[in-house]
Amino acid sequence: MKTFVFAALIAMCFSLNAVQHDMAYIKWEDKHQDLLKSDNQKVNEKLRALEKRFGKKPNIIYILADDIGWGELGCYLGGKVRGTPTPELDNMADEGMKFLSSYSEPSCTPSRIAIMTGRHPFRTGVDGVYWPGSDEGLPTEEVLIPQLLSKAGYKTAMWGKWHLGEAEKFAPENRGFDYAYYTVYNGAPFAWVDVEGHYEKETVPGSAFFYDFPGEKKYDEQYGIALQGIYQAKKGQKRKEVAKLSAITMQKVEDTSAKEIIQYIKDNAKSKQPFFIYWATLAQQLASSPKDYRFEKNVDSRNNQAAELGQHDTNLKKILDTLHDQGIAENTLVVWISDNGPMYAFWPTSGYTWLRGGKGEVYEGGVRIPGMAWWPGMIEEGQDPIDLIQMTDLFTTAARLGGVTDDIPNDRVIDGIDQTAFLLMGDGHSHRNFIFHYNGNHLGAVRINDIKLIIKGTGGSIPEIETYNIKRDPCERFGKLYPYLWMVQPAQDLIKGHLQLIQKFPNRKKESDSQSTFGPHD
Amino acid sequence: MKTFVFAALIAMCFSLNAVQHDMAYIKWEDKHQDLLKSDNQKVNEKLRALEKRFGKKPNIIYILADDIGWGELGCYLGGKVRGTPTPELDNMADEGMKFLSSYSEPSCTPSRIAIMTGRHPFRTGVDGVYWPGSDEGLPTEEVLIPQLLSKAGYKTAMWGKWHLGEAEKFAPENRGFDYAYYTVYNGAPFAWVDVEGHYEKETVPGSAFFYDFPGEKKYDEQYGIALQGIYQAKKGQKRKEVAKLSAITMQKVEDTSAKEIIQYIKDNAKSKQPFFIYWATLAQQLASSPKDYRFEKNVDSRNNQAAELGQHDTNLKKILDTLHDQGIAENTLVVWISDNGPMYAFWPTSGYTWLRGGKGEVYEGGVRIPGMAWWPGMIEEGQDPIDLIQMTDLFTTAARLGGVTDDIPNDRVIDGIDQTAFLLMGDGHSHRNFIFHYNGNHLGAVRINDIKLIIKGTGGSIPEIETYNIKRDPCERFGKLYPYLWMVQPAQDLIKGHLQLIQKFPNRKKESDSQSTFGPHD
């Protein structure tokens, strides 16, 4: 009987000419037909009314922050407690919706893939973070959200940390963005620098083992990697290096990005076309100290990371203010979210989280991240929903808002779920009760409702599994291999269906840049 | 030179006919004369104006909760996240002041001593928690805050868990309270019971090792301890046992206490005398599930602890509402605070904290506790100060509010600091930059400004010390034996002065009840 139902579900899912979801969602959908119907009706009504009022689809701004943990912002019990005041981010949460259960991939490149493609990175052939000098990139067969939104008539632009491949064929201007101002790297070349742009030479407790670093100007010579600078690019045109890479330059990228974004909003506020902005800010990964923000907002002058947060916090406010000033706040969804948990390797100037683990791990500290959504008039203020939302959902939700859900390719599994109903109606309206936590190609954990299984391996006669009730034990302290079928079986079923669909839709192969001096590798 | 200053300070402190503070405070005081003067002036003005308006000193209500960790309440990122909604406690915080750095002693009896005497328990000869059957009690030479406030003309009353000795000479009605309704025990005889008052027989994950417990009615026979029931008492009269001890009785104690408190407030609202209420609620130590609150407020029906919090949350609101209804909210300080961190022995129905460790430890999880102060018109709403406050401070602050600071005996060290300025003016006005964390008679940790030293022993050639920056690392993950003098020396100086004063004012000896069937022991 059970097999029959399962087969019927698979048949059903393949017969629809729609988004190819994971089996976990298909099962959820099957059980929640009434909620789905009612949610869809309400969402359609709200979006239609809005489109009538503004004469176009809503603008979308996604701000992806870097390594900011669950517990860093004031509104997540950080702020004063951690010496990292974030009054404007807190204010954004007050005016909108603060996610208590928003989840990312466990590191930088993977989360960028998730938000751009709506897919867990392992499906795309990418299994980790790109390091400077890599010739690989996100395979060009992947369809990115700016490509879809361009089809829907959106103007698209990105600022900040691309990190999806160094070669031009992987670059944002060739992957759907009309305009881009970016670096191809993570913080590796710039981190641990003082205000003058030199590697830290002062006595910073805990950073003593970095003393041997060369001055930043010697980086290229030292490691044989010709670092690429800051690029500016327009769709279809050759990108220009507008600044050389240095610690000082990087400190200015945040402010320059914010200034350009504000101008972009002003230029496009009255346009017939809506816009999509993707701001992948480097705050707070640089772990450097922007000079102008060192002594502001009660930030301890020795605390580089807090100064970076302060800089970002100030810029965020300017952007939200601009939306109000231009009269388009009510037609603009702004989502702010972190790409993963804190990177403790940067300690003592790293971020922090209340949770167990950090960046690179599938424990909550690596993947449960601060996130909020702001949309005056559409998202009721002062909400803090506990329902689940995952980074991939931002892809599918943007497609729905842009009216291009039908353009999402259905020859691949899309992990993202349309969460428009959740954004517009809050708790009780998330269409997700599960998460697959991948670390590279390894399925590291699954969550279904409150139960999470950490999958460590199959070392002995029984699987090495830790079972947590994330609601009772958010810090994952009391993991046990529970003998209770009711606790583990739902997760087992989830994994079974998930793996069957992977066989049907195999993961993509890696793609590299044949022009690279390093040559392709796999 | 340094020795000279130190000697001068000691001389100064002994020459004053005032509260005998710890050397740590005397040094702080010496450096902050201007702030103290200005704070005192403002506090005096505010209190004088209030007394003029109401014709009496302010009422004081201290609510001491049981084992509620930093991270359990909604306003400490618990609530929805943990499945323990506390809307009314959150509301109290919104309307007043939420302490981000309030500290208790690490367990029940010690925190009760701290709030009642203003002294760290080790000074009073008490080194731990009383277990049912103990003949010891808080030495009767200790002067309790209800005794002082009685002198000031206050009516004094207490409800809940006394836990400072079983014998009558140690009982609240003989220690300064006009009225008391109480149990002498901690939760040991009642915990782990189901709604019907029986020990849990169902399959509760994690509690399997309790299956061998006898039914609760057999407790006396089983352990040879004649359990005392719920007492009601008036000053100078013999106490009456108004209910036998059972799990069902205990579940009703919370509601009965709240009802009596509300009636007491009504009866005394218009009195010429102010009142002092000390409510030592058993919520949430029972880890049982009050039937009426099981399904309220989205509480998971299996979650006993959340049901208990729900019950307390509901009662708290009724009390605050009564103060408003009676027109005395603006003349009543209400402080709500937990006695220590979570007791994980009760897992999975225990409390929780974001911090490291729990009850019985001097890591933050044991001693950093939720706390708030509420006083409409006097305490500005919406504050969340990060400045330090310690349980002993509640003694000294109550004495100041009652105008009986001069009656505090000066033949002993008082650890509590008058924090009236902090309550009335918030961050920047705490008169404390240090804490001594004792665990029994062992000085387990000291905190000065952001730096905390965990003192583990002197095992080898160097002291076993962990050094934390509590602001950067509130979970105490990156402890090191730092070689930096600037980091460790202030704490060393703190300890030195502290120990010198202990030599001058030796700790009291234990006191026991000679009537006890067990006889005295030391």
TL;DR of this structure?
Chain A has helices at residues 2-15, 23-31, 33-54, 87-95, 108-117, 145-151, 219-223, 247-268, 304-325, 364-367, 393-402, 420-425, 485-504; strands spanning 59-65, 97-99, 102-103, 136-137, 155-161, 179-183, 230-234, 240-243, 275-280, 332-338, 371-374, 389-390, 434-439, 442-448, 451-457, 464-469, 511-512. Chain A has 522 residues and is of the alpha/beta class.
CA radius of gyration of chain A is 22 Å
> Can you write the helix and strand succession of chain A as a string?
HHHEHEEHEHEEHEEHEHEHEEHHEEEEHE
Largest interface: which pair?
A: A-B, 28 and 28 residues
CATH C-level label of the largest domain in chain A: Alpha Beta
Percent strand of chain A equals 15-25%
SS elements, strand count of chain A: 17
CATH homologous group name of the largest domain in chain A = Alkaline Phosphatase, subunit A
Into which percent range does the helicity of residues of chain A fall? 25-40%
What is the number of independent domains of chain A?
2
Q: Let me know the largest β-sheet of chain A.
A: 9 strands, mixed
Residue windows where pLDDT falls under 50 for at least 5 positions of chain A: 11-16, 192-217, 516-522
> Based on the structure, what is the oligomeric state of the protein chains?
homodimer
Shape of chain A: globular
Span between N and C termini of chain A? Answer: 43 Å
The secondary-structure class of chain A comes to alpha/beta
CATH architecture of the largest domain in chain A: 3-Layer(aba) Sandwich
CATH topology of the largest domain in chain A: Alkaline Phosphatase, subunit A
